[in-house]
Amino acid sequence: MSARIVHIAANTFREAVRDRVLYNLIAFAVLMSGAAILVGQISIDIERLVVVNLGLTAVSLFGMVIAIFIGIGLVSKEIEKRTLYTVLSRPVRRWEFIVGKFLGLAGTLVVNAFFMAIGVFAALLYVSHSFQATDGWVLVALYFIVLQFFIITALALLFSSFSSPLMAAVFAFALFVIGSFAEDLRGFAALTHGLTRWLATGAAYLVPNFSALNVISSVAHEQPVSGHLIILNTAYALVYTTMAISGAVLIFERRNLK
Amino acid sequence: MPAIEILGLQKTYAVGFWRKKPKIALKPLQLQVEDGEVFGFLGPNGAGKTTTLKLLMGLVFPTGGTARILGQDWRQPEVKSQIGFLPEQPYFYDYLTARELLEYYAQLSGVPAKERARKISEMLERVGLSGSANTQLRKFSKGMLQRAGIAQAILHDPKVVFLDEPMSGLDPMGRREVRDLIEQLKREGKTVFFSTHILSDAEALCDRVAIIHQGELRGVGAVADLTSSVHGKVELVWQGKRIPTSLKTLGADCHLSGDTVLAVLPEENQEAALEALRREGIRLISLVPVRTSLEDYFVAQLKPVPASAGATA
């Protein structure tokens, strides 16, 4: 990988840290501590289920909010503030800038998710007093959540490369919501006919399939995740992310920085 | 080999939401800047100076034409490692300290890791920011930001430095510091291309200037040549309040200011005017030919000209 990409990614990570993005971990820690104590008092035999559900959902929501609200400004903020001018007047190619920005935010989200994962497992230990073999599936669910972060970050970056931050936020959030119901959309498409079927099927496959990447409920019920699904989800996330970043690069390569 | 060759670069934007209309930001521009020159790119606001610089930096794409910097296509990454750029009213990553900012730009410019710390310290010293090296840029004044901007532009020892309105918004001390830095760059043999609408700065610093207006090159030449064209008039200055009546008949335009009289008259009447002053016993202070100032030249170039496809230099 080009050293310039690494430097841009490192600077993006540093910006997120200095802008106190990781302070969300404090809110998360308070939420998990409160939930663990409360659940321990009011739930009988379902403490683990509640903690896994609540913890993983919180990891997902906190991360998604960060991915969207930082992702939409990754390019547009640099153009608006003209910080990009002194970067692109150096031997930095535009695609290197886009990839560097993506990796910087993706890295921030991974670090964030790592500390949140520690919080989830600490809460699990508090309510269960010991770890179980099935807790390993929680790690798989966390891995899928991180894959979702990569997709939404790439999409936010894509929208950020051609639209205003507000519109980029609307597009990214809309795709997050629609993508969370992608399986339902595919089910709906199967029930329709003619042109509607074509349109619904096309839309169902175009939006990111976040529902396939959401195994929170099944791991909360201690159900295993198949290796097949892990491979498919990994490949899907990598392809989708690469396509979104490629789209962002294609647009940005042609953009005049007025 | 010229340091910069602009070969017909032009830019037209499409403006409007529905029925887009073309708006010419820069007509085909031909310009050449020699190696080691300090070149001033002058023009009023909105003349096309920043568009030209953005085209050269690859920030906007030309509608036509090309350019060469140091003999190579201007878009090549190898060229970009040999140029420095200070944008107009620069804004930098304000969460970084001055040292971190320079570290980041040194990394992107490919400055070897083992040289970075030394070069950054030297540069901070040179622009007078060593005392604020570890202060975040969000706490910097405008003048300090401008100095940080110049530091990032020359940190990697580029051969050609582009500065967009480097004195804009600075107080007299700040302007003086930037002028000193540009003079230092000239002594080091760098080619400096800077845009400005402050003519006194251009007159003091530049070997040559070009004047651009409404996206069109209106004139180019050495400052000394542009300001030395004689109008065929002379300017006489003498002590006192007396104005010989005979001077009026010689076509003199006289102005009394305090205890001094300034008279401008045709060069061919110079001897007759001197004789008239001698007869009156008036002591002459100076006699100089009237020359065009850069401001006169600048104003003359901004007057409307017949439509043309562009100018050359």
List the helices and strands and how they pair.
The complex is a heterodimer of chains A (258) and B (313).
Chain A: H1 3-18, H2 24-42, H3 47-71, H4 76-80, H5 83-88, H6 94-128, H7 136-160, H8 165-180, H9 182-191, H10 194-206, H11 216-220, H12 227-253
Helix pairs in contact in A: 1-6, 2-3, 2-6, 3-6, 3-7, 6-7, 6-12, 7-8, 7-12, 9-10
Chain B: E1 4-15, E2 21-33, E3 38-42, H1 49-57, E4 64-69, E5 72-73, H2 77-80, E6 83-86, H3 98-109, H4 113-126, H5 142-154, E7 160-164, H6 172-187, E8 191-196, H7 199-205, E9 208-213, E10 216-222, H8 223-226, E11 230-239, H9 246-249, E12 253-257, E13 260-266, H10 270-279, E14 284-291, H11 294-301
Helix pairs in contact in B: 3-4
Description:
The complex is a heterodimer of chains A (258) and B (313). With 258 residues, chain A is mainly α. Chain A has one domain (3-253). Helices cover 78% and strands 0% of the residues of chain A. Chain A contains twelve helices and no strands. Chain A has helices spanning 3-18, 24-42, 47-71, 76-80, 83-88, 94-128, 136-160, 165-180, 182-191, 194-206, 216-220, 227-253. In chain A, helix 6 (94-128) runs antiparallel to helix 12. Chain B folds into two domains: 4-226, P-loop containing nucleotide triphosphate hydrolases (Rossmann fold, 3-Layer(aba) Sandwich), CATH 3.40.50.300; 231-291, Alpha-Beta Plaits (2-Layer Sandwich), CATH 3.30.70.980. Helix content of chain B is 32%, strand content 31%. In chain B, the strands form three sheets. A six-stranded mixed sheet of chain B has the order 6-7-8-3-9-10, with helices on both faces. In chain B, strands 2-1-4-5 form a four-stranded antiparallel sheet, covered by helices on one side. In chain B, strands 12-13-11-14 form a four-stranded antiparallel sheet, with helices on one face. In chain B, strand 7, helix 6 and strand 8 (191-196) form a beta-alpha-beta unit. In chain B, helix 3 packs across helix 4. Chain B has 313 residues and is α/β, with parallel strands linked by helices. Residues 309-313 of chain B have low confidence and may be disordered. Chain B is built from eleven helices and 14 strands. Classes of the chains: A mainly alpha (258), B alpha/beta (313). The interface between A and B is medium-sized, with 26 and 32 residues.
